[in-house]
Amino acid sequence: MKLIESKVAGCYEIQPVIFNDERGKFIKTFHRDIFIQENLNIDWKEEYYSVSHKDVIRGMHFQLPPYDHEKLVYCSFGAVLDVIVDLRKSSPTYLQHVSVSLSAESGNMVYIPRGCAHGFKSLQDGTVMMYKVATVYNSDADCGIAWDSCGINWELKSEPVISQRDRGFVKLNNFVTPFE
After folding, report:
1. Integer Cα distance of 134 and 67 in angstroms
2. Residues involved in catalysis
3. 3-state secondary structure string, the chain?
4. So what's the pLDDT on residue 41?
5. Do the Cβ atoms of 133 and 45 come closer than 8 Å?
6. Cα diameter, the chain
7. How confident is the model at residue 17, as a pLDDT?
């Protein structure tokens, strides 16, 4: 695995070694020793996935303290434009965002630190996004910021599909961050 630090502090794009043969591909999505060596979380509490149609935007999601968590995300089918926004007041990259193209073809992943909002735009029908998270989901701590309030270039060619829940999130400039 190769870890590439993004412009958001503590957020990494991870490029795995992909083994190809006559059967297809084999991709390792987690290696405990490499994560320990890089001081990344190795204690995942939940894992889940979403399936999205083309032009769906999901985000920008996070959990509030004390249920905030690191995430490891990757696309096991299809492709997405994945976006992370730094909400940590003391971070050198506070309020900055980074976009990463993730796809099943490339096998790349993103490690997202605590205190960051996460979202993505699906680039094709049936896109499957996998998530490992360091805390169990807590509905009282579930939160988000408006997907269109962070200065993100979503590369829109048509009207995106956004859930009612995501449409109701507060704009970034009105969000009072609890993340230090």
Report:
1. 9
2. 61, 131
3. CEEEECCCCCCEEEECCEEEECCEEEECCCCHHHHHHCCCCCCCCEEEEEEECCCEEEEEEEECCCCCCCEEEEEEECEEEEEEEECCCCCCCCCCEEEEEEECCCCCEEEECCCEEEEEEECCCCEEEEEEECCCCCCCCEEEECCCCCCCCCCCCCCCECCHHHHCCECHHHCCCCCC
4. 96
5. yes
6. 53
7. 92
pLDDT, averaged in runs of 10, over the chain (180 residues): 96 96 95 96 97 98 98 98 98 98 97 98 98 98 98 95 97 97
pLDDT of residue 10: 97
Locate tokens 């269109």: which residue?
148
Instruction: Identify whether the C-beta of residue 45 lies closer than 8 Å to the C-beta of residue 135.
Output: yes
Instruction: Measure Cα distances from 99 to 45, 82, 147, 170 in Å.
Output: 25, 6, 13, 21
